[in-house]
Amino acid sequence: MIDRREVPPPTPATLYELTERGYALKPAILELARWGRPLLRDPADDRLPDSALLLGFEATFHPDAAVGLDETYDIEVDGERVAVRVHDGTVDVTPGPAGEHATVRVVTDREGFMELARGRAGDRLRIEGDAAALVRLQRIFSLA
């Protein structure tokens, strides 16, 4: 399920990667995330786990709403950044910044992120770039 390999100098490190069999679990994990998605519609006292940011974008993606769209979103929640690339009904979510190609950059905290996912853009958001892209982001990644 997971391969471990050592990277030689000059930057020695240990890398862990999913095997083909590990990647085969992705559809099941996404279905579990979709199953639990209604639980996030109502405010809760517990906080959004860090891993939910990556998985959340894939689980809430509405491909039909993204047909013909080609945009990149740089999302930062409590210091954790992800690049969300949408291309003609498909999505690719990767850890780290989107770089200078981002259509819009959104910086917020977890509470602000949950409000955004519920379709409300409150005062907890800092938006850089195309503000209209934020509306499209809410349409294609929605808890509704």
Describe this structure in a few short sentences.
By secondary structure, the protein is α+β, with helices and mostly antiparallel strands. It is built from five helices and seven strands. The mean pLDDT is 83.
Question: Could you explain how this protein is built, in words?
Answer:
- The protein is an alpha+beta fold.
- It has 5 helices and 7 strands, in the order ββαααββββαβα.
- The model has no long low-confidence stretch (mean pLDDT 83).
- Helix content is 29%, strand content 30%.
- The chain starts with a strand and ends with a helix.
- Strand 3 (70-77) and strand 4 (80-87) form a beta hairpin.
- It has helices spanning 20-23, 26-36, 51-59, 110-117, 131-140; strands spanning 2-7, 13-18, 70-77, 80-87, 90-95, 104-108, 126-129.
- Helix 2 (26-36) packs across helix 3.
- It has a 5-stranded mixed sheet with strand order 5-4-3-6-7.
- The protein is globular and about 45 Å long.
Structural class: alpha+beta
Globular, elongated, flat, extended or rod-shaped: what is the shape? globular
Percent helix among the residues?
25-40%
Radius of gyration (Å): 16 Å
Task: State the total count of DSSP E strands.
Answer: 7
What is the typical, i.e. mean, pLDDT?
83
Count, helices: 5
| C-alpha end-to-end distance | 34 Å
Strand order of the largest sheet: 5-4-3-6-7
